[in-house]
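tool=predict chain=A
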Amino acid sequence: MNKVFILLGPTASGKSKLSLKLSRDYPFEIINADLYSIYKGLNIGTAKPSNTEQKITKHYLIDTIEPNIKYNVSNFCVDVDSSIKTILSKNKYPLIVGGTMMYVYQLLNGLSNEYDLLESDKKLIKFIQKKYSSSQIHKAFQSDTLANLDNINCNDNYRIEKLLERSVGPVNQIKKYRGLYSQKNIKVNIIFIDIKDRELLRTTISDRAREMIKSGLVEEVEKLMENFNLTQDSQSMKAIGYKETIDYLNNKINLKDLTEKITVSTQQLAKRQLTWRNKFEINFKVSFPDINYGKLCQFISKSLQ
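tool=predict ok
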Protein backbone atom coordinates (compact mmCIF):
# COMPACT_ATOMS: atom_id res chain seq x y z
CA MET A 1 0.00 0.00 0.00
CA ASN A 2 1.48 3.34 -1.10
CA LYS A 3 1.19 6.12 1.48
CA VAL A 4 0.25 9.67 0.44
CA PHE A 5 0.07 12.51 2.97
CA ILE A 6 -1.85 15.75 2.52
CA LEU A 7 -1.30 18.84 4.69
CA LEU A 8 -4.17 21.33 4.52
CA GLY A 9 -5.03 24.52 6.34
CA PRO A 10 -5.90 28.18 5.85
CA THR A 11 -3.48 30.66 4.40
CA ALA A 12 -0.79 32.00 6.79
CA SER A 13 -1.23 29.05 9.18
CA GLY A 14 2.31 27.79 8.65
CA LYS A 15 1.78 24.94 6.17
CA SER A 16 5.02 25.56 4.26
CA LYS A 17 7.13 25.85 7.40
CA LEU A 18 5.62 22.69 8.87
CA SER A 19 6.01 20.73 5.63
CA LEU A 20 9.69 21.65 5.39
CA LYS A 21 10.25 20.56 8.98
CA LEU A 22 8.51 17.24 8.32
CA SER A 23 10.57 16.69 5.18
CA ARG A 24 13.73 16.90 7.26
CA ASP A 25 12.50 14.20 9.63
CA TYR A 26 10.77 11.91 7.11
CA PRO A 27 11.48 10.84 3.50
CA PHE A 28 8.93 13.27 2.09
CA GLU A 29 8.97 15.17 -1.18
CA ILE A 30 6.51 18.05 -1.42
CA ILE A 31 3.81 18.55 -4.04
CA ASN A 32 2.44 22.08 -4.15
CA ALA A 33 -1.36 22.37 -4.00
CA ASP A 34 -1.62 26.14 -4.17
CA LEU A 35 -2.93 27.15 -7.60
CA TYR A 36 -0.99 30.39 -7.94
CA SER A 37 2.39 29.02 -6.80
CA ILE A 38 2.34 26.92 -9.97
CA TYR A 39 2.97 30.11 -11.97
CA LYS A 40 6.50 31.33 -12.64
CA GLY A 41 7.20 34.81 -11.35
CA LEU A 42 4.40 34.92 -8.78
CA ASN A 43 6.77 34.80 -5.83
CA ILE A 44 6.09 37.50 -3.27
CA GLY A 45 2.30 37.37 -3.33
CA THR A 46 2.16 33.57 -3.06
CA ALA A 47 4.80 33.30 -0.30
CA LYS A 48 6.58 30.49 -2.15
CA PRO A 49 9.32 28.50 -0.45
CA SER A 50 12.68 30.15 -1.11
CA ASN A 51 15.19 28.74 -3.61
CA THR A 52 17.27 27.49 -0.68
CA GLU A 53 14.29 25.68 0.83
CA GLN A 54 13.45 24.13 -2.52
CA LYS A 55 17.02 22.87 -2.81
CA ILE A 56 16.81 21.22 0.61
CA THR A 57 13.53 19.46 -0.19
CA LYS A 58 12.37 18.52 -3.68
CA HIS A 59 9.19 20.41 -4.61
CA TYR A 60 6.79 19.63 -7.44
CA LEU A 61 4.34 21.94 -9.23
CA ILE A 62 6.10 25.17 -8.29
CA ASP A 63 7.15 27.52 -11.11
CA THR A 64 5.97 25.08 -13.79
CA ILE A 65 3.99 27.32 -16.18
CA GLU A 66 4.20 30.87 -17.51
CA PRO A 67 1.77 33.41 -15.98
CA ASN A 68 -0.07 33.92 -19.27
CA ILE A 69 -1.17 30.26 -19.44
CA LYS A 70 -4.50 28.98 -18.11
CA TYR A 71 -4.49 26.11 -15.65
CA ASN A 72 -7.43 24.15 -14.30
CA VAL A 73 -8.32 21.43 -11.82
CA SER A 74 -8.07 18.75 -14.49
CA ASN A 75 -4.49 19.78 -15.27
CA PHE A 76 -3.77 19.77 -11.56
CA CYS A 77 -5.09 16.24 -10.99
CA VAL A 78 -3.04 14.85 -13.88
CA ASP A 79 0.11 16.68 -12.75
CA VAL A 80 -0.24 15.59 -9.12
CA ASP A 81 -0.89 12.00 -10.19
CA SER A 82 2.32 12.04 -12.23
CA SER A 83 4.27 13.63 -9.34
CA ILE A 84 3.01 10.99 -6.90
CA LYS A 85 4.22 8.21 -9.20
CA THR A 86 7.63 9.85 -9.52
CA ILE A 87 8.06 10.23 -5.76
CA LEU A 88 6.92 6.69 -5.01
CA SER A 89 9.35 5.34 -7.63
CA LYS A 90 12.16 6.90 -5.55
CA ASN A 91 10.95 5.04 -2.43
CA LYS A 92 9.85 8.29 -0.85
CA TYR A 93 6.46 9.57 0.27
CA PRO A 94 4.44 12.38 -1.35
CA LEU A 95 3.41 15.25 0.95
CA ILE A 96 0.78 17.38 -0.81
CA VAL A 97 0.69 20.86 0.72
CA GLY A 98 -1.60 23.76 -0.01
CA GLY A 99 -4.75 25.72 0.39
CA THR A 100 -6.58 25.42 -2.93
CA MET A 101 -9.19 23.24 -1.25
CA MET A 102 -11.43 22.61 -4.24
CA TYR A 103 -8.50 21.28 -6.27
CA VAL A 104 -7.49 18.92 -3.47
CA TYR A 105 -11.09 17.79 -3.00
CA GLN A 106 -11.34 16.88 -6.69
CA LEU A 107 -7.94 15.19 -6.54
CA LEU A 108 -9.29 12.94 -3.80
CA ASN A 109 -12.75 12.30 -5.20
CA GLY A 110 -12.18 12.46 -8.92
CA LEU A 111 -13.51 14.41 -11.89
CA SER A 112 -16.55 13.03 -13.65
CA ASN A 113 -16.14 15.20 -16.73
CA GLU A 114 -14.48 18.20 -18.31
CA TYR A 115 -15.90 21.14 -20.19
CA ASP A 116 -14.69 22.21 -23.61
CA LEU A 117 -15.06 25.96 -24.04
CA LEU A 118 -15.08 27.63 -27.42
CA GLU A 119 -13.70 31.17 -27.72
CA SER A 120 -17.29 32.38 -28.06
CA ASP A 121 -18.13 30.60 -24.78
CA LYS A 122 -15.24 32.33 -23.01
CA LYS A 123 -16.32 35.73 -24.36
CA LEU A 124 -19.88 35.13 -23.18
CA ILE A 125 -18.68 34.23 -19.67
CA LYS A 126 -16.49 37.34 -19.52
CA PHE A 127 -19.43 39.48 -20.68
CA ILE A 128 -21.68 38.02 -17.95
CA GLN A 129 -19.02 38.56 -15.28
CA LYS A 130 -18.50 42.18 -16.32
CA LYS A 131 -22.20 42.95 -16.44
CA TYR A 132 -23.20 41.16 -13.21
CA SER A 133 -21.56 40.65 -9.83
CA SER A 134 -20.81 37.16 -8.50
CA SER A 135 -23.65 37.47 -5.99
CA GLN A 136 -26.09 38.39 -8.78
CA ILE A 137 -25.00 35.41 -10.86
CA HIS A 138 -25.29 33.15 -7.81
CA LYS A 139 -28.83 34.41 -7.18
CA ALA A 140 -29.78 33.81 -10.83
CA PHE A 141 -28.74 30.15 -10.55
CA GLN A 142 -30.90 29.54 -7.47
CA SER A 143 -33.88 28.69 -9.67
CA ASP A 144 -31.81 26.17 -11.67
CA THR A 145 -32.46 22.74 -10.15
CA LEU A 146 -29.42 21.29 -11.94
CA ALA A 147 -26.99 23.80 -10.43
CA ASN A 148 -25.57 22.65 -7.10
CA LEU A 149 -25.03 25.81 -5.05
CA ASP A 150 -24.57 24.11 -1.67
CA ASN A 151 -20.80 24.54 -1.64
CA ILE A 152 -20.55 27.79 -3.59
CA ASN A 153 -20.28 31.08 -1.72
CA CYS A 154 -22.04 33.93 -3.51
CA ASN A 155 -18.80 35.99 -3.39
CA ASP A 156 -16.47 33.21 -4.56
CA ASN A 157 -15.54 34.61 -7.97
CA TYR A 158 -13.54 31.55 -9.05
CA ARG A 159 -16.27 29.00 -8.32
CA ILE A 160 -18.93 31.23 -9.84
CA GLU A 161 -16.82 31.28 -13.01
CA LYS A 162 -16.64 27.46 -12.93
CA LEU A 163 -20.42 27.37 -12.50
CA LEU A 164 -20.81 29.46 -15.65
CA GLU A 165 -18.39 27.17 -17.51
CA ARG A 166 -20.47 24.14 -16.56
CA SER A 167 -23.59 25.88 -17.81
CA VAL A 168 -22.15 27.20 -21.07
CA GLY A 169 -19.62 24.60 -22.15
CA PRO A 170 -20.46 21.21 -23.70
CA VAL A 171 -19.42 18.27 -21.54
CA ASN A 172 -16.45 16.23 -22.70
CA GLN A 173 -17.09 12.78 -21.26
CA ILE A 174 -13.90 11.25 -22.67
CA LYS A 175 -11.43 12.68 -20.19
CA LYS A 176 -12.04 11.59 -16.64
CA TYR A 177 -9.86 11.40 -13.56
CA ARG A 178 -10.24 8.75 -10.86
CA GLY A 179 -9.68 10.27 -7.43
CA LEU A 180 -7.01 9.04 -5.07
CA TYR A 181 -9.68 7.47 -2.88
CA SER A 182 -10.70 5.16 -5.72
CA GLN A 183 -7.13 3.90 -6.23
CA LYS A 184 -6.91 0.77 -4.12
CA ASN A 185 -3.11 0.79 -3.92
CA ILE A 186 -3.01 4.22 -2.26
CA LYS A 187 -3.64 5.09 1.38
CA VAL A 188 -4.37 8.79 1.95
CA ASN A 189 -3.61 10.50 5.26
CA ILE A 190 -4.96 14.03 5.68
CA ILE A 191 -3.49 16.43 8.25
CA PHE A 192 -5.41 19.65 8.83
CA ILE A 193 -4.14 22.78 10.58
CA ASP A 194 -7.07 24.10 12.59
CA ILE A 195 -7.12 27.59 14.06
CA LYS A 196 -7.14 27.90 17.83
CA ASP A 197 -6.38 31.62 17.89
CA ARG A 198 -8.23 33.35 15.04
CA GLU A 199 -7.21 36.82 16.19
CA LEU A 200 -3.56 35.84 15.92
CA LEU A 201 -4.17 34.50 12.42
CA ARG A 202 -5.75 37.82 11.43
CA THR A 203 -2.72 39.65 12.82
CA THR A 204 -0.37 37.30 10.97
CA ILE A 205 -2.25 37.92 7.72
CA SER A 206 -2.12 41.69 8.23
CA ASP A 207 1.63 41.59 8.95
CA ARG A 208 2.23 39.42 5.91
CA ALA A 209 0.33 41.82 3.63
CA ARG A 210 2.52 44.72 4.78
CA GLU A 211 5.67 42.64 4.38
CA MET A 212 4.72 41.62 0.82
CA ILE A 213 4.34 45.24 -0.25
CA LYS A 214 7.57 46.15 1.52
CA SER A 215 9.34 43.29 -0.28
CA GLY A 216 8.36 44.57 -3.72
CA LEU A 217 4.94 43.12 -4.59
CA VAL A 218 3.98 46.19 -6.65
CA GLU A 219 7.17 45.97 -8.70
CA GLU A 220 6.67 42.22 -9.18
CA VAL A 221 3.14 42.69 -10.55
CA GLU A 222 4.22 45.59 -12.76
CA LYS A 223 7.03 43.50 -14.27
CA LEU A 224 4.76 40.46 -14.83
CA MET A 225 2.12 42.54 -16.58
CA GLU A 226 4.68 44.16 -18.83
CA ASN A 227 6.64 40.99 -19.71
CA PHE A 228 3.63 38.74 -20.34
CA ASN A 229 1.02 41.26 -21.47
CA LEU A 230 -1.23 40.39 -18.53
CA THR A 231 -4.45 42.11 -17.50
CA GLN A 232 -6.84 41.81 -14.59
CA ASP A 233 -8.66 39.13 -16.61
CA SER A 234 -5.58 36.87 -16.76
CA GLN A 235 -6.02 33.85 -14.50
CA SER A 236 -2.69 34.34 -12.72
CA MET A 237 -3.59 37.95 -11.90
CA LYS A 238 -6.74 36.87 -10.07
CA ALA A 239 -4.61 35.75 -7.14
CA ILE A 240 -5.07 37.67 -3.91
CA GLY A 241 -2.46 40.39 -3.76
CA TYR A 242 -2.14 40.60 -7.51
CA LYS A 243 -5.66 41.69 -8.46
CA GLU A 244 -5.57 44.36 -5.71
CA THR A 245 -2.15 45.56 -6.88
CA ILE A 246 -3.50 46.01 -10.41
CA ASP A 247 -6.14 48.35 -8.95
CA TYR A 248 -3.31 50.29 -7.30
CA LEU A 249 -1.34 50.47 -10.56
CA ASN A 250 -4.49 51.72 -12.31
CA ASN A 251 -4.78 54.48 -9.67
CA LYS A 252 -8.06 53.11 -8.33
CA ILE A 253 -6.74 52.83 -4.76
CA ASN A 254 -3.81 54.25 -2.79
CA LEU A 255 -1.03 52.32 -1.03
CA LYS A 256 -2.83 52.28 2.32
CA ASP A 257 -5.98 50.92 0.67
CA LEU A 258 -3.87 48.30 -1.11
CA THR A 259 -2.58 46.92 2.18
CA GLU A 260 -6.07 46.90 3.66
CA LYS A 261 -7.67 45.25 0.63
CA ILE A 262 -5.06 42.47 0.51
CA THR A 263 -5.52 41.88 4.24
CA VAL A 264 -9.31 41.69 4.04
CA SER A 265 -9.26 39.46 0.94
CA THR A 266 -6.78 37.09 2.59
CA GLN A 267 -8.83 36.94 5.79
CA GLN A 268 -11.92 36.08 3.75
CA LEU A 269 -9.96 33.36 1.94
CA ALA A 270 -8.82 31.87 5.25
CA LYS A 271 -12.41 31.80 6.45
CA ARG A 272 -13.53 29.98 3.30
CA GLN A 273 -10.67 27.51 3.60
CA LEU A 274 -11.71 26.65 7.14
CA THR A 275 -15.23 25.81 5.97
CA TRP A 276 -13.75 22.93 3.98
CA ARG A 277 -12.87 21.00 7.15
CA ASN A 278 -16.13 19.05 7.16
CA LYS A 279 -15.75 18.08 3.51
CA PHE A 280 -12.51 16.18 4.06
CA GLU A 281 -11.91 12.89 5.86
CA ILE A 282 -9.31 14.32 8.23
CA ASN A 283 -7.02 11.78 9.87
CA PHE A 284 -5.15 14.13 12.20
CA LYS A 285 -5.58 17.73 13.36
CA VAL A 286 -3.01 20.15 14.68
CA SER A 287 -3.76 23.63 16.03
CA PHE A 288 -2.36 27.01 15.01
CA PRO A 289 -0.26 28.47 16.49
CA ASP A 290 0.76 25.84 19.10
CA ILE A 291 1.35 22.85 16.85
CA ASN A 292 2.15 19.75 18.87
CA TYR A 293 4.93 18.47 16.65
CA GLY A 294 5.63 15.44 18.82
CA LYS A 295 2.09 14.08 18.51
CA LEU A 296 2.08 14.81 14.79
CA CYS A 297 5.27 12.78 14.39
CA GLN A 298 3.71 9.92 16.34
CA PHE A 299 0.78 9.92 13.92
CA ILE A 300 3.05 9.96 10.85
CA SER A 301 5.37 7.26 12.18
CA LYS A 302 2.42 5.01 12.95
CA SER A 303 0.90 5.69 9.52
CA LEU A 304 4.14 4.69 7.83
CA GLN A 305 4.33 1.31 9.58
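The CA atoms of residues 124 and 168 lie 9 Å apart. The first strand starts at residue 2 and ends at 8.
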